[in-house]
Amino acid sequence: MTARRLMTAREHAFAASCSAVAIASSSVICASSAGLLKQIAGLVLISAFACAVWFIRRDRFDAIVPAAGLTLSFLILAGLALAAGHVLSAIPVALALAFVTLAAVWFGASSPAPRLAGRGSWFKRPKLNALAAAGVLIFAVAAVLAVHYSAASATTDADGASSIAIWAYPSGDRLHVGVAQPAGHRAASVRIVVTHAGATVATWDNIRLAPGQTWEAPALTASGPGPVQVLALHDGIVVASVSSQ
Amino acid sequence: MPDEGAYPLPAPDAMRARPAARAMGLAIGSAFVADGAGVVLLAVADARSRSGASGSYLLFWAGLALIFAPSAGVLLLSRCTRQTRLGVALGFGLALYLAKVVYEPTAFTFHDEFAHYRNAANLLSSGQLFGYNPLIRATGYYPGLAVATDAMAHLTGLSAYTCGLILIGCARLVLVGALFLLVDELLGSSRAAGVAVLVYAAGPNFLYWDAQYGYESLALPLAVLTVFFLARRNGRPPSTQAVLCSLAVALAVVATHHITAWVLAALLLAWAVAVWLRNSRSRSRAGSGSRSRFRRNADGTSAGAGAAAEFVPKLPASVTTGAAVAWLFVVAPITIGYLSPVVTRAAVQGFQLVVEFHTSRTLFANTGQAATAPEWERVAAIAGTLAILVSLPLALYRSRRSGLPAIAKLLAWSSLGWVALLPLRFTAGGQETANRSSEFLYLGIALCFGLLLEPFLDASRWRRMLALCLVALLFVGGISVSWNYAQRLAPDYRLTNGSAAVTPDDQALARWMLATLGPGHRIATDNQTGLALGSIGRQDVLSSAEDGSRIWSIFYPPTVTGDVLAELRRSAVQYVVVQRDVLDLPTGVTRFDDSEPALYYDSALSGASLAKFDTSPVFREIYAAGSLRVYQVADSAGGQ
Predict the structure, then answer these.
(1) By CA distance, what is A241's nearest residue in B?
(2) How far apart are CA A113 and CA A121, in angstroms?
């Protein structure tokens, strides 16, 4: 009898926390434009929805799988409906998800879980095996470290394989000139020379380019016939150039 | 009566159960730790491959072995609980997903990922469904993945890339979990379910293809979940809640991926018809008084003349089929034109193979290239294939005698489709069809192995070891054909030819074009550069399949001829982007478009063909980086 009462108290606590989390996180999403807080709130709201769906069949641990699938399906169908109405943005998605989370919690609380008192009830015994929990935790930490290490390595290698970029594109009668140094390269000083029909029209000496830095010249007036050439020189050697006839 | 809630006293049974629980905890904990260690090894393997260091190949296999062996040990050898098996299976599936994540954890790099990223970017920027996608136009008409990504991106403020990784990771968990629960439900054995998960993971598309950011990676798990909602042991009807859930999930599948939706609809229809026929036969037998004949089911319950009728999934079948057909003809008729050439090519070359014994492809190699995979991998792949071919008849024979529900039998017999399509792997045109169908047909193969090996797992240790060895062989064979050997590990961009992969310079150019020139410009370029420009840059790159343009007629002539100018005008080209590394591509491989005539790609490309853009007044060079050059097409050429 006490166990049953205790179990019901747990259920109520779970339902109440799920609802509170849904309301709080949707409020944060509606109030904030970007940032870590919004990221956490968004992920928490989606998780709250999954938990609320799982709560309907809380007698079974494995109901987490269909709960995750239904969460994905909800994101697809709700996203589709909102996009069809041209209102796919943060506030409508957050409100829809919070509303459906509350509805699922209410539905779950009002419907009895048939096997809750049975031996296989997971909700009744939320105590995890310490060794298993430690294994899951180590897996999570290893996965995060592996992805982080891999991302750092991929970024370094991609930066190292990138080339210095130079551009000179016309916009009306103005010419926009710029240079970008890849993040994987060392800082360098370059000289930019712009010639028009063989005559030098602009020069910038000793432009310091830090790794990953972009430099853009003030727009030039370059009208009239003749080829335009832009050179980037380092120690007198051309490291990048664009030219047009 | 003691108060359970206050000070629970351990019962003698509970005390005996403690060491067993500890052993189970150790088993599941070890499997997860090994999964984590395996993922770390894979990350190191990819990092070493990227930097050109040695040993990456060994590390790759060591990482996979660490993920596979302990999980397979728990699933096949131990006598642990159903929940433990499910937990280990989920960890195993997630670890293999992370193998794809650590391959390239900063950006989408697989071909189709670029196309799907474009859909998400279109929707994020414009809010409009069905935006133009020059990379694979048909994908834009199945926006399930894009809307889910964008809904999550709006909700969290995370990038579309991060949201895509999270979504596909969740989908992977759903796939593994739903498959486990489905087989457990149908065969009544969590051991068989564990076997099924391991065998399904041995499918050639599990490691990379179905882990990529693509619509099938999201739709397939949901399709399996739909079947799980409806399938019940002995064919008893599911609850109304389950049927409603299956309908919602099936509709999500219809809006996400064409082939998965059609396969799901076909399966549900076949299931409904099969059960209807079976029920009719039972009724007629009952009418003819053959009440004395009974069959024994797997769990000992009787079925036959007097048994309750099996559930007929009429509503899910009709709703899914109706929705899939309506979506195809009302929303996405373009899909027919997209898929029919692939199917036609497979059918023609399959016919030639059967009638003329004409093969057009070397096994274990990309079309037109020689096989590069090590000998032992090829042997393992062939041995794995033979093991499946031998095992399937035994499993099907067993399925006939075991009184399984109709859906289990249907799935088991669908595995024969894999056998039927196997010869297409010897054809260049049919290889894609054979390979892409395996993620569906492996569901049946996985169920068959679950059915076949389940009795082994309750037997002596050596028979269980035999089962483990068989599954390990399938896994190694599947990984060997999962991805082209040369591309199985992350590429070293310093050595990569810019015409064979999307390089960091391509990505930088795509970002520059989007920021500087804006989206939606008509651009002629090569295949790989086009992927970056069409997705990250949101430019409308030319594609013969999508807009009928003939890009090759712009690039191949050594001078700017009238034909070049005519194609520039016809395709309204605004910019030409030249990747000079295209000159290094061997003959026999398309350079600028997959539809390029053999007349062009079978001959060498001259340097003058690309240098002509430097000397013609029609083109103005505006950007240069490494081997990339961007030319603006002058108004006088009529391109703009």
Answers:
(1) B624
(2) 10
